[in-house]
Amino acid sequence: MAGRPASRRETKGEPQPHDVSARMIPRYSDAGFMIVLPGDDPRETVDAILETGYGEEFCVSPSFDPDFVAGLMEAGFLVMSAMFAGSGKAGDGGFYVALPKLHLVRSVLFFDDLHVKKSTRRLLGRYELYHDRDFDFILNRCVEVHGDGWLTPPLVAAIAEIRRRGFRGVRPTSFSLYRDGRPVAGEFGVSVGGVYTSYSGYYDETGAGTVQLVLATRWLRDNGFAFFDLGMPLDYKSDLGAVEVGPREFVGIFRSAQNGFVRQPDRTL
Predict the structure, then answer these.
(1) Three-class secondary structure of residue 135 per DSSP
(2) 202 bridge partner residues
(3) Phi and psi, residue 49, nearest 5°
(4) 112: which DSSP letter?
(5) Is there a contact between 43 and 70 (Cβ–Cβ < 8 Å)?
(6) 3-class secondary structure, 164
(7) Residue 30: CB partners within 8 Å, gap ≥ 6?
(8) Per-residue pLDDT reduced to its tens digit, 163-193
(9) What is the pLDDT of residues 191-250, one digit of tens each?
(10) Segment holding 137, helix H or strand E
(11) pTM of the model
(12) DSSP 224
């Protein structure tokens, strides 16, 4: 376990980049996006983004190799994907690309900042939260609810393979919220050391999504995580107390949080 949860002051720090000029020469697509390939060091790619002033949130990659995708996650990328349509000619049906994302603004919830509205507090006792109990169901439910626009088949397959085989200490995991014995909300994400990054979620009844986030935040706090990485800023995340950080600060606290995480936490709250 990563010890007691760190405050924002304790986790805040500057990343220590490699010598980008000596170790990596960035490549760019015709549209100006940084290209990342298997064999690249994802950490060096992050350093290149920070040191070169790259102004985009996304990089692009043709590879969904699970070890490669896990390396991107380990470096702090939130890995998304997309399908590009083909020309319509025979044999050209389009292709998928991975989109490693390092947000220009990232939503981070430090546990001391968690704010729970009275209306939500009244609901907490009605539900039970389970960690890592229904991963496949939740992943499939998120695709069912939100579509496969970015949760494309090759990315879903890579996430499932990372979970099945384990790569680089990266663990796709889930939280599920139950009421009266049935699942009513959930989310999946990725744990890397002392950080859990939320990828996608769903809810089937009003208020359940917020309850799930509150209980998941408490679970992460109680099980030694450093902070809750919520990805793209949205109002409901700010309402919970999340703050917005830039890429350099995020990389600094993400890397700091990787030290000292030594055991898998308990499964239920």
Answers:
(1) helix
(2) 186
(3) -60, -45
(4) G
(5) no
(6) helix
(7) none
(8) 999 898 999 999 999 999 999 999 999 999 9
(9) 999 999 999 999 999 999 999 999 999 999 999 999 999 999 999 999 999 999 999 999
(10) helix 135-146
(11) 0.87
(12) T
- Matching CATH number, 1-269, of 3.40.630.70, 3.20.20.70, 3.40.50.1400, 3.40.640.10: 3.40.630.70
Q: Where are the beta strands (DSSP E) in the chain?
A: 27-28, 34-35, 78-84, 95-101, 106-109, 128-131, 170-179, 182-192, 195-203, 227-231, 243-245
Structure tokens at 30: 């015709």
- Residues with Cβ within 8 Å of residue 79, at least 6 apart in sequence: 69, 72, 73, 98, 99, 100, 101, 155
Please give the DSSP secondary-structure letter assigned to residue 7: P
Cβ-count burial 25-46 (b if 16+ within 10 Å, e if not): ebeeeeeebbebeeebebbbbb
* Sequence-distant (≥ 6) Cβ neighbours of residue 172 within 8 angstroms: 135, 159, 160, 162, 163, 188, 189, 190, 191
Closest CA to 234 of 196, 191, 200: 200
DSSP 8-state class, residue 147: -
How confident is the model over 133-148, as pLDDT tens digits? 999 999 999 999 999 9
Domain boundaries, the chain: 1-269
Mean pLDDT, all residues of the chain: 88
